[in-house]
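Take a minute with the sequence and C-alpha cells given here and flag any C-alpha cell that looks odd. Thanks in advance.
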Amino acid sequence: MSERLNVRVLLLVGDEAEIVTPHRGHTDPERVPVDRLVKETGLAREDLAGARLVAVVGDDGELKRFERA
C-alpha cells in the first residue's frame, strides 16, 4: 500500500530540487532530480520553486512519484 504526502519544492540547486515533506524539513530536505519533477508533474522548470506537490510513497519509504497538488 502506498501513502500520499503533501510536499513543497523549496528551491532548485543545479539539476536537483530540494523537497520538504512532513518527515524531512528545510534543514534536511529530500533531493530529487529536476528532470524527474518536470516529467512527472508537467510543470516547467521555472515553475518548480515554491510548488506544492503530492508525493506517492512506496512501501519501502521511497518517493515513487510526484503529482500536482
In short: The mean pLDDT is 94. The beta strands are 3-13, 16-20, 30-33, 52-57, 63-68.
